[in-house]
Structures are given as C-alpha cells and as structure tokens.
Amino acid sequence: MYNDEVNAADQAVNRIEVGGANTRPGMSKRKAKMIVRDLDFFYGANQALYNISLDIYQHHVLGLIGPSGCGKSTFLRTLNRMNDTIPGTRATGTIKLDGTDIYRDIDDVASLRTRVGMVFQKSNPFPKSIFENVAYGLRVNGVRDKQLIEESVEDTLKKAFLWDEVKDKLDQSAYMLSGGQQQRVCIARALAVQPEILLMDEPASALDPISTSKIEDLIGELKKHYTIVIVTHNMQQAARVADFTAFFFEGNMIEFGATKKIFTKPDIKKTEDYITGRFG
Amino acid sequence: MKRHNFKSKSKLLEWIGEKFIAINALAAVLAIFLIFIFIFKESIPLFTDSEIQEEVTVERMTFKQEWYEGRDAKYSWQPNSEVPKYSLMPLFVGTIKAALIAMLFAVPLGVGAAVYSAEFANRRMREFIKPVIEMLAGIPSVVLGFFSLIVLASFLQSTFGFVFRLNATNAGIALGVAVIPIVFTVAEDAMTTIPQSLRDAALALGATPWQVSLTVVLPAALPGIASGIVLGFGRAIGETMIVLMASGNAAIISGNFADSIRTISATIAAELAEVVFGGAHYSVLFFLGSLLFVFTFLINLGGDYILGRLKERYQGRTL
Amino acid sequence: MNTLTRAAADRTSEKVKKIVEARGTSGGHLPRTITLLAVAIIVAMLAVILGNVILGGYHIISWDFLSSPPENGMEEGGIFPAIFGTVALVLLMTIAVVPVGVMTALYLHEYTRPDSKMTRVIRMAINNLAGVPSIVFGLFGLGFFIGFVGHNMDNMFFSDQGPVWGQPAIIWASLTLAILTLPVVIIATEEALRSIPRELREASLALGATRLQTIRRVVLPQALPGILTGAILAVSRGAGEVAPIMFTGAAYYLPYLPEKLNDQFMELGYHIYVMATQSPDVEKTKPILYGTVLVLLVLTFLLNFTAILLRSRMRSRRVNV
After folding, report:
1. What ipTM describes this predicted complex?
2. The whole model's pTM is what?
3. Domains, chain B, ordered by start
C-alpha cells in the first residue's frame, strides 16, 4: 500500500539524506504534527532513551520497530505523558505538539491526553457496558448532551469497524466480547474523545491473525482523519501499515525514514541486520 | 554401584497419619455443628415444656401484651419482675439502634480512609495508615467499652446535654470504632486490586486521577466495599462488651438515640448469671442466642450473595 | 438509534471536539481533603484512646502492681492473679487450638483439591465460625462444655459428689476460646503454606518421600514462622475476649490461683469489665482500673506487633527465595 503520498514523503526524505543529515528530517512538505528533539528519558537513575529526534507527520502512520526492551514503548508513552504516572521518571529535551512544548507549556496533562489518545497492548475495557465504555471519555470530559453522546458512540464504533457487530447489544458488558472485539472497543473509546493523534502500543499483538488484519485495515482508514504512531514487534506489520518507520535499539533511534526505504535499502548496518533477522 | 536397600515405608503409618489429620480438619465443621445443636437445644423447652409455656411463649415474645389487667398492651422486657415480661421488641430495637449509629459512624470514616489510602496516599502514608488501622483492630472490645463508659459518656453528656449518660449514641460510637477496621480493610483491599491497566486506560482518555477513582475504581470495587459494610454490620449486631458496658442497659423502645438501650447480646450477657438452670428465663436467653446466631449467619450469607450478584455484572473477568 | 449520515457524523465530531477542548483544569482537591480528614479523625481517635489509657494508668504500674494480689476490695494492691489467670488461660487455649488449626490448614492445602466438596464444607464452616458473636460462644461454653460434657463426666465418675467438672472451670473457658480462635490459626497457617513454593514439595516427593514425610520434614519447618504468627494472633485475640469466659470460668475475686484444670480463675479483661461496671466506689478503684486496662492493652499490642514483625520478615524472605 505505497501510495502517492508515501512516495512523495519518501522523496522528501531522500532529498534530505542527500544533504547528509540522515536522522534529522525537517524539511518535508508534510506537516509535522509532533516534533521530537533531543529527547532523553530516565527511570530514576537509569537512562532509557538517548537523544531521540524525529518528526511525526499529520495523517500518516509512524511505525516504531526494534527488539524487546529497546525503548519504543517508553518513547510512545512520552508522547502523551503516560510515563508521568510512574514515580521517578524524568524527561529532558523537547516534544512539541503543533508548536506547544507538551512538557513545559502544558499544565493540565489531562487535556494533553484528549489530543493524544492511546490504545494499549492488552485490551483494557472498563467493567461497564460497551456503550458506557465508548462514552466514558466523553462523560469524563464534560459532554452531557445525551443525543450527542449516542451519536458519538455510534460514529466511533463505525470508525472502529465494530458497529454492525455490537449495535444490538450495546448494553452488554464489554467483557462478553472476543479479544479482537474488545480491542476495537478500546479503539472506539479512544477515538470518541476526538484526539488528533492516536498512539497504538502493539495493538494486535495479543490477537489472532484475522482480528489482526481487521485492525490493520482499520489503521489504514483511520489515518485519513488522524495521525497514528504505532509500536510493533512485527516487522511485516510495520511494512504493511506504516508510512514512516523508526528503528530503535537499546534506547537509541538508529534510523528514521520512509518505510519503503527502511525495509529495502536502509542506510545503517544495524537496521539492515535487524530487518533481515540477524538478531532480535 | 551398590543399590541402597531402603526399608519399606510403613504404608499403615502413612494412612493413619492422613486420617488423623483429616479428622482434625473436620473440627471446624464439628464445632459449628455442635454450636448450632447446643444453642438450639437449650431453647427447645420454649416450644415443648408446658410449665415454661405458662410463663412465656413465642407469641408472647413477639406481640404487644397486656401484662396487667386493665392497662394498655405494650412491649416490655422485665423477666425478673413479679409478672415476668418477655417481649423481644425492645431488645431488637436496641440492637438495631446501636448498630445503625455504629454504621453511620464507621462507614464514612472507614470507606473514606480506604479511598484515601488506595487512591491518594503515597507509600509512606500508606505504611503509616496500615498500622494505625491494625492497632485500632487490636483494641479488645472490653477496652473500648471501658473507654466509652468512663470517658466518652462524660464527654458526650457535657457536649450535647444528654439526659442519660449511658445511651445508644455512646455505645454506638464505640461500636463504630470497632467496626471501622473491618470496613477499611475490605474496602481498601477491593480498591487496590483494580488493575493498573484500567486506571491507565482512563488516564489516557483525559480523566483526572480523581475522575479515575470516582468513575472507574469505585464502581468496580463496589462489591467488595458493600461486602465490607455487611460484615461490619454483622459485627455491630453481635458485639457484646461495648454495649454491655456503655449503653445503659435499659430495655426501652424509643426513637430518641440519646436514650438508653438494651441489645440482644448484652441481655444474654447480663442476665445469664442469674437464671435458674433449665427455667423459662434460661430458655429464653438461649433462644435469643439462637436468634443472634441465625441473624449473623444470614447477614454473612447475604453479604456473600451481594458480592456474587454484583460480580455477575462484570462477567468474564475476575478482578 | 438513528443511523448517522456522513455529514451528521462530522457535525457530531465537531461538537464533541469543542466541548472537550473547553474543559477547564478540574480542581478536585476536595475529595483528597475530605478523605484525608477521615484518616485524620481515625488517627485522632486512636491517639485519644491510647493517650487516655496511658496517662490514666502509667503512674500506677510498678513491679508491685504486677506481682501482688488485690486488696481491700480492689481498691489497693495489684493484679497479679488476673495476669496469671490470663496467661494460664491462653496457654491452655494455645495447646488446644494450634495443633487442630494447623492440621485443618494442612488438610485443606496439602491433601484436598480446591474445588472438592470437602474443601467447600470446611471453608464454609470456618467462615461461619469466624462470624459467630462472642456471646454465642459463651452460651455454647455454658451449654455444651459445662452443661453436657462436664455434667456427664460428673455423672459417670463423680456421681456421689457435688459438681466437679460440670461447673465453670479454666479448662472449659480455654476450650471455648480455642474454638473462637480456630479460624485465626487456620488462616494464618494457610497463608504460610501457600508461600512455600511447589518445587520444594515436588523435590521431596521425587526423592521417594511420602506426603506425610514431606509435610513433617519440609513443609512444616518452612511454615513455622507463619504458624507462630497465627498462634500469636490467636493469643492476642483470646486474651482480649471477655464474653466467652464470663460464664465458663472467669471470676472477679478469688483468694487462690488456679491450680487444677477445674479451678476458676481471674482474668484481665473480665476484671476490667466487673471493676468498671460494678465497683461500689468508682473513684477509688479508677487507678487500678486504668492500670489493668493499660496492662491488657500493652500485652495485646506487644503480641500483635510481634506477629506483624514476624509476618513481614516471612514475606521479605519469600521474595528472596
């Protein structure tokens, strides 16, 4: 699914590479929704991320790949400050969302999370009905209008390719659904808040192949309205869904570029070793 | 290599050992069984012995009686007067009054403290609160009764101007102190077992930490909190020493919570020493004991039932 | 529910977006403050109770107080007999309850499957036992131990004398308390057994040991701290309960110490109860009353503290294994 958009970005990145700055793209024609510069991250005294810099382009999918423990999930969680919930963590550097530094310029971290949503690795619906799960984010952020809530729930469940399967049993407990369905409930739930960016942490790793491909189709649709960053340990999946890919290793970002390039002719040997399965 | 020649282990010994352990394990079952039998046994004469029934019957214990000719029918518990009166209503009312005050006092404090401990407190605070609650739980009820009798009663009387120094409120508050650790422990336990992944999901949707507590944790922990309250209520109903020492021990029916009361348990404790073995009063006290036993059994059963039904709402996942 | 058109869905999204963006920073310090208040009230209550008892009683505590008998109708003297009686009582109780409780826990954990009928019956019995009001235990002690066991013992062996065993006695009181504290021992022992890794048992069985040998040589020694914890908690509970012993053997004033199993005894908790409610001159006996309460409280807290210490050491050791 390499369409014109990706090819254009591809070329843009290539243009920069010709100039020599391989890991610091910045002059693409695509709008950078989020910009990360010189990000270091610490769990207490242990450094987990070293000097990460990359751009996240609007209406594109950025895939983060790398072996276990390389920091890709940690990095993902810095983008919506979910790491704040872990005591003793510290981040230095800059992360900007539409020009606003999310660590220094934002007081209310909850409002950040309404703009940057997250879907977790293991689906975690609330012990509530399907309807109430999807409506949760709306209620908690002040939406009171009953009809508005109902319409939103329907809309986002449709966007998550789940509406037809659950429209007759919205009052049932979400736990009665299959794993793949529960994950789509979680996606609908995240979408209901109207985020601009959706972070997905290995969303299909706990699912069967059919559910996985449903979710991958979903991502292809979603990027038309949202910007997506997806962590995956499955390289084929990254190749399938991501427009851009960043390869992480031991807390460093080794290479960043258009997916096609990363997977066919990467610049850095380590990337090539990982892609070809020599380790990890 | 020479093979060792082990002595054959005595299979008989093993069998005896296992049976011995098994028999001892049935001790708890035997105990409950015996308690049931012997409490009820001593109250049976109420239903069978005609001599006793001259003095008291279940019917007379339940309904208003015209104890003296010409006077109004009333509920009255005066087993030791010339005309022995055995209405159970004053005792029921007293028990409920004390338990009600205890729960009104213990539930907000116990649940509130549990919410703070589970949702707001950092580790140091939690490790401070835990021993505080355990110390509270470790205070023997006779000490709470003593404190209520000697200190609390005077304080309450001088602050609120109660007519009776020992009354339902006095005993109820001390009872509440005894119930708080039960409610706290069960409620806090229920809230801390809510998985972090649910909290994360809510936070990622833009909920503030308090919103997470209110809209995700508390509803999910409700079965546990409810069962803690039910257990606490069962304790409040059955508790003896506190009410015996601090409630005034007057078997009257009134809506005023500053009046003295008599509870079922205190009645048994106070009067058992003076009864004639096998007499009517004796049987009635054992009957009261049976009632108490059945009540607390049903309350605990009810608590388990509530737990089960509420958990059903969250089918498919055991939290 | 109406089905949405594309345009309607977009309008919905816009409306939601506006509302979500407009959410202010939620204050919400109120819940934290209120619940913290609850904690503060509880801490204050504990402090008041403990403080009152300590201040009221510490000045009378002395070696004399702890070692001499009461005099002059409880207005002077000490509480030694009550201490002695309490110790003797819980000692007998422990001898009765620990073996039975440990064996029950062993049976439940080592021999039966968790879903077997026997397990469920025993567990139901334990839960019920734990919920029985203490006065009902007192009634049981009176009706069963004294009225049935003791009475029949008298009929069989002492029919020519007055009651020997069919009367309040320290043995009956301690047996009553043993039944009351049975759940405490069982639960603590079970916790200890659960913390022993399966691999240890399997290693023993794989070497040809029988289940009984495994229990005796591997499981029990490992479980000892937990069993000890349970015993200490049971003792602490037993020392504090009054209702079960009121009619089964406790007495307010005895000129002698209990020497035989069918003697009556003085006891700290019972002493407090009677002194507080039936003293002819409350003011004169107040110092001794406070002293007795302080002694009982210190005893209870020391026991609980020891048990908690043991338990946390046991848990941290398990982590290292």
Report:
1. 0.88
2. 0.84
3. 85-315 (1.10.3720.10)
